[in-house]
Amino acid sequence: MMRLPRFRYFAPRTLADAVALLAEHGAQAALVAGGTDLWPNMKRRQQTPTRVIGLRAVEALHGVRGDAASGFTVGAMTSLTAVEHDGALAAAWPALGRAAHLISTPPLRNMGTLGGNLCLDTRCNYWNQSFEWRQSIDFCLKRDGGTCWVAPGSERCWAVSSSDTAPVLAAIGAEVTLVSVDGERRIPVRDLFRDDGIEYLNKRSNEILTSIHVPPQDGSWRAAYRKLRRRESFDFPVLGVAAAARVVAGVVEEARIFVTGAGSRPHDASAAAALLVGKRLDDRDAVAAVADRAARLAKPLDNTDFALGWRKEMARHHVTAALADLV
Fold it and tell me: What is the pLDDT of residue 202?
């Protein structure tokens, strides 16, 4: 049985207290939302904070507020189940509810949070193992070792982003609020991530992700999410494609595509999606051109499931399927 290492637990009731605790304990501290990512990582000794700051009791971080006309603000501690089943949010942006539904299993969605899924640790076949297994290969670049076993000659870590909600929120133009003792800032979700398996977030160490801002929906925007995984019931994505388009009088005026599971951040393939502008979503030639160009961003390595060539080919098919869903 894997056991948690010893740590001191804090349960602040206000955001101000949580921010102050994080500033006080610095690198020794870790934030925990639902715990579906942090607790397993701690049991495997991938993360070993001596202080854990729980956010569950901070009421201001829970709940969905707003409407389709003005946009929604979703507290970072809102459970994935609540995101999936919120009627107004699902009616405005069903792709977000779909992405939340495809995460893991119902018990874990009851515990996991939207903010936690955005901050999900990157994954890799050589990283997501027990301490003893990683020790047997002299660890890896992500922690305690000096070699990336996926690409031994590389100076960077190639662990992949596996968040399901991140590509959808990036595609629809959502933003997040980050709060620290220095104040707060609001950035687009697409700018929250870095292409680095270790330092994968553009979130400062003293910041707490407090809320997600989902844009208004006037009926012209459509969004879809497609996910590839071995076991449909609960696996992480080895490929995820989020597509969004603004359609007026049957013609695409703006389009975005984000591909996840094929790199250390959700890759922005909006340059490929731009080929749809001025065309109809059922234009097969245009869709094929977009899929071919978007698939070039998918450069999978041997660090998740399935054969590399097949995963890359699936990127083309999943982009095509996501665009078909928009129709």
Answer: 97
